[in-house]
């Protein structure tokens, strides 16, 4: 995912005022002295301001400013909303601001969860690693009355020789002298800001050629204990980058670096990605998260998000990276990913179904379901409707038009309309500006002597749908794409035998609510439910404490406590207990017995009344405590067993297409 702290800053402090003239990009010359062992940083900024309207510079109020001058004269800052604000009046001539300040910061917390890192914008400085996101205002960020300004910078970092530094931009210098290292970065394009990272890294590099013939450098900056994985990541990065260039054109930067973090981060910035050490150890990351972060150099870190109207980049990146790789591997894997998306979306309550236009970034699992997965389905349906040729042409046009500029959903709409010649106003109004899912259904099927007439309908709002209707006659299946743009429509197909079987969207290509029983349960169906109940089975107080720690990390909300004696009903429920307590609870409520073993077993089960159960049984409190960090990552599974805090086996319950049969009477 992209680092988007500056967007949160903008939303808190600035209402967008459309129509104001854009300013030329301010130029920053930043010089930093970083002392990881002391948790400190000293900094100097020379900021060249072109002729401009009134401009605001905003620095975290916790940082100590030691001097501030505008064109040689002293300035004062005000403090508001946790920020020091330096207001500079409109000027017809260029001006220069000089600022010096110091930062004290804590070392990164290695025990932090991934969820903790999503909203942590405060600087972190330590010998195991340092991270100063631009969105945390570690240096003075420029704003005008419309919001944060794109700007350019040169950043020089002085730090101990055993440390290395990383920031977006071309690396011009990396030299050693007298036990110190000097690194200089240059961001010559308009950018959203300078994120600064450092660590005791081992560097590996590889030279490749871009599709336009330019030399590119691929690099890893890994902590010593994972340095042996560099070659595998460089191989994978080269392959992913070449594949993406074939679709969108040349990579927009001169380097791409994969850096390791002591905390479980998963961030992408211009020309780099910053991933947790334990994340990078996972063998599948180079084929899942890595292509996603590389593609962000086009979407989000190449074309920047508009200041209002929603974050389109995560959904488009999910569609073109995560999903595209599944498609390349075969139909079964792509279908499984679509089904997983719909499971998560169908588990959300109507109140949790915000619009794509209202999605700013991932903060919890529900927001990921909307901003990543629903958005990816919206792009999939658009490609199915327009065709791959027009769809890909629109994206290339969008990239060339908005490279290093801000763009929003409506700019994407215009690109798709130009490429296809279609009016997509209603499509974007319902799927982007509105919330919720479609709910098409087969309401009637009448078999005549030689034709089958099928009636489809949907409740309001009436989404523009091209419904894949599968018709199986005498063992042969044909697919009818039925246009359903209003409340109801009919389609007639030839009937060459006395009976036919029907299935509506059995390959899950529509952003729709799954019908009850359409797919076997997964753990996330319960954990995403706003009305989730929680039962911690009695008998072991230490295990009960571990259970409360698990739910605090796994769930986005505080669940309702449900007594163990209460039978499962229509509401989702999580039940946690020891093996003996769980086996007894299942028997009392006449539910299927636990059929897997391990130190910890978690599985999803559909209760007879229809509710989804997320069941977690543990050998003891220590085993459950060790599994707490890993378990939330397996919500898409039907079951998982863990040993020593790691997954041993996992899987999903088998699913089968539900066919409706109709015959000539």
| Unreliable stretches covering 5 or more consecutive residues | 4-22
Helix fraction by DSSP (H/I, runs of at least 4): 25-40%
CATH architecture of the largest domain, by name, is Sandwich
The number of strands is 37
Rg measurement, Å: 27 Å
> What is the total number of structural domains?
4
Beta percentage is 25-35%
Describe it.
This protein has 665 residues and is an alpha+beta fold. The chain has four domains: 164 residues, Immunoglobulin-like (Sandwich), CATH 2.60.40; 121 residues, Neutral Protease, domain 2, CATH 1.10.390.10; 78 residues, Immunoglobulin-like; 129 residues, 2-Layer Sandwich (Chitobiase, domain 2), CATH 3.30.379. 26% of the residues lie in helices and 33% in strands. The chain has 15 helices and 37 strands. It has an eight-stranded mixed beta sheet, with no helix packed on it. The chain has a seven-stranded mixed beta sheet with strand order 31-30-32-34-33-35-36. Strands 6-7-3-10-11 form a five-stranded antiparallel beta sheet, covered by helices on one side. Helix 3 crosses helix 5 and helix 5 crosses helix 6. The N and C termini lie far apart (56 Å). About 3% of the residues have low confidence.
Characteristic key phrases:
single chain; 665 residues; alpha+beta; eight-stranded mixed beta sheet; 15 helices; 33% strand; Immunoglobulin-like; seven-stranded mixed beta sheet; 4 domains; 37 strands; Neutral Protease, domain 2
